[in-house]
Amino acid sequence: MAKVTEDMVWNKLKEVIDFEIGLDVVSLGLVYEVKVDEKDNVFVLMTMTTPMCPLAGMILQDAEAKLREIEGVNDVKVELTFDPPWTPDRVDPNVRAQLGI
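The structure corresponding to this sequence follows.
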């Protein structure tokens, strides 16, 4: 069984879509931190574009479910934070150009 890597986690998070915006959480800059420990436990710290996001619970559940699909993952914890608050500056520069921001 292969060791779970942070790259594997980042790539899987690209499959998690913010349905209101239609883009993945990585491109939007919603993922602040990814850690994989020696026992292949995954920790992700992420945010939403606004604390009032009506889809926050669904997006967090989707992220956890996708991460559990990675072969070898032991446990998954996805934590939500609003510190620091998200800003459009966190959006991938290529996506910003596509969106005109």
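The radius of gyration is 14 Å.
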